[in-house]
Amino acid sequence: MLLFSLSALTLALHPVNSPANEALDPAFDITQATASTDGRLTTFAMEVAGLAGSQKPQAIGQLTGAKVTAYVWPTSLNPDLVGFEADSGILALAITAHPDFDDTPLFDENNDGDPANDGADWHSHWAVLVQDEACGAGLKVRDVSPGVDLLPATAPMLPIALDSPGMSPVLDGAVARITVPLSNSESAHFDAVTAEMQVNEAGEAPLLCVTGVHDVASGDLSLPGIIMAEH
Description:
The chain is mainly beta. It has one domain (6-229). The protein has no helices and 15 strands. The chain is globular, with a radius of gyration of 16 Å.
């Protein structure tokens, strides 16, 4: 079942509030989501009922079939704002963790001198999401051909529309927060999602599927939030 529809956009006041759900793992039970900009930097945040970032995937020892846990802010922003092909899908910002691979080769998140062993630590990505009914939640990270499709300069050059900008997320108590260099974001729409993804076990497209959704701040992925100017 497709979970996302840009045609469902509705105007709403900022922030997006979400009722607590005792049936959900508190680490993924969104209670509020916000986004703001000073004109140069944009900050996305979500609050959960429990401890943000306290749950991570179990390692399986290989890339194919590897699990990814994510706190995600889908937006109405055009992907070309951060260096992807224009109008190529849904631009989303994510905080992810996945112990079986490292997709931030330019950055050493755990400061141990090795930039290739940091996937298990929480880190940030821009991603372009598109529909694919082959995926459990009806969405995937868009498949691309590095060197052919337009990608940001800090992309890890995987065959998916993924960027690794190196901005450090903050997971503090109930709040997951990330600030990225992004201008022209005021009045854009956003939502907040806690989700699970998985690398295709066959090692082919769709390479990275959204396989399940824990919670959606709006309840229907209608992107009711509005990025507000900081005053």
